[in-house]
Write the structure tokens for this entry.
Amino acid sequence: MYKRGDLKNIVMVIVRNFPAEAQITRIEFEGPEIAVYVKNPAVIVNNPEIVKKIVKELKKRIVIRTDPEVRKSQHETKEIIKSLVPPEAGIKDIQFDEVLGEVIVKAEKVGLVYGKNRNIYNKILVETGWRLNVVRAPPIESKTVNRVISHMLQQSSYRLNFLRSVGERIHRGVIYENRYVRITALGGFMEVGRSAILVETPESRVLLDVGINPAVVGTYDMYPRLDIDQLKIDELDAVIVTHAHLDHMGLVPYLFKYGYKGPVYTTKPTRDLMVLSQLDLLDIIQRSGKTPPYTQHEVKKMILHTIPLEYGEVTDIAPDIKLTFYNAGHILGSAIVHLHIGEGLHNIVYTGDFKYGKTRLLDKAHDTFPRVETLIMESTYGDTVLKSRREAEQELIEHISRTISRGGKVLIPVMAVGRAQEILLVISDAIRRKWLPRINIYIDGMIDEVTAIHLSYPELLSSQLRERIFRGENPFVDDFIIKVKNRQMREDIAKGDEPCVILATSGMLQGGPSVEYLYMLAEDPKNMLIFVSYQVRGTLGRQIKDGAREITLVSPEGKLEVVKIRMEVVSVEGFSGHSDKKQLLAYLENIRPRPKNVILNHGEPSAIRSLANSIRKRFKNEFNVYTPTILESLLLAGVA
Ligand SMILES: [Zn+2]
């Protein structure tokens, strides 16, 4: 923990350890990192132990940048890069960030650009003065990734100023001696939706997730309780986003509308997926004639304020808080949050949504941490044991096969992120293995774009999938997987005779193409509606799942119409990206070290109560189990 005046200390440690030949010209805070500008990077590159020693002493992340004076021209740099990087790397594009001194290389094989032990990276830095930043060129281009990168490039000097001001704030030094840690439930407690938790110490205030309640989009109830006294949006130190589902990040841009100036910490794929989903949300709200809570302007601002982190990277986010992300196994880029507060005063692990089991898409959630006193754990399936993955897959294939053989169509509403890709892998695999006839799978909504984002970050996918992609296979592409391009095509598919499978967003039938298909397919008993994910209370999906067979829908002409559901409706539960009851209890069995407090959130009251009882029964008095409701606070450390 840094006391006031320690900036001098940091500078002294760096200057003392750097050889004079390196020629330091500036030392700056850049977000959580300390940037050291030098004229001669070769000395540092050739003696990596110098930086290692400083990192160990300061416990800070150091980045070496070069003085603009020593950077070669863009033309020369391009030539040098092309001569150093082997052609198999498949370089697609080279761009320059003059402000940060970074050269952004887009390539098919990222590893080949960096070289063995980063030897090419180092050579490029030494020979050109530019720092290499490699972006993957996926087999399907992601418009979102391209947009995010070009926006950051355009606004590079804004971003540098922002990073410097965040850096100053993080390293502002500890003022208060009176130490405590308190959390307040703002949303997603004793309910599912609008997740938000405020973490407070005398020094800092951090928000964990800021989601909407998808069941009541466009109304006041979609917001978590951001209106409480102790939450001053413009004074927050940081916002941390666990994953890119709207009930966890749908309102991040809204904070910027109300004066937030700080950073958003998340993983790179979460950043990209969150931009895509927020823009889609704005579109859906606008089309429904309601006023959106923010505009594209705030989404763009959020992009510039996002500081992406990798799993396992320990990062200072406030004078007294360090953040580390771990794989949550829920969707691409999803993270379990570890907060190390006040030099060991208290450690919080917040699972976000997590899957303690392997899926086709992702590896199992992480369960071992350096320290943990308080675990905040989601409880979506706190009272339900789900079918095994294998049974679920079999059941899904049987349902599809039955519908196809009677000449019907299968509609599967899916969230674009995660479940869509998982189900796509299951069905396409079944077709390739001839367990299903060669039928068309139509994908509609943002699924295609989300898949492109998955292919941009294969290193974060499950080990099996990753290997296939690195071999050059694209498991999401086949000629029977067809993207639906417009409303006319949608109508042709729904009204034609062809038996097929349709994967469409939104996953809970709250707007989007899935509702349009439902409108067109509902009255034919040959068809089938299959739910493969959790349906939040209050959504149309939940109503139908709970047995409603007469629903009111908006027709394509914009009129309210009563529609009878005569198609078969089934749910296949085992595909969840959430841990079921067994997996939640197994997590408590296996988590190391052992927490003292277990706080349950993200579940309906019955699920949370049932899980709390099971925990008390199974683990006797090992944990203090808490089941707070919204607006309740808990003092986790310190004296009241
Ligand atoms: Zn989620």
Notes: The first helix runs from residue 6 to 17. The first strand starts at residue 24 and ends at 30. The mean pLDDT is 93. The pocket of zinc ion is lined by residues 243, 245, 248, 330, 353 (CB under 6 Å).
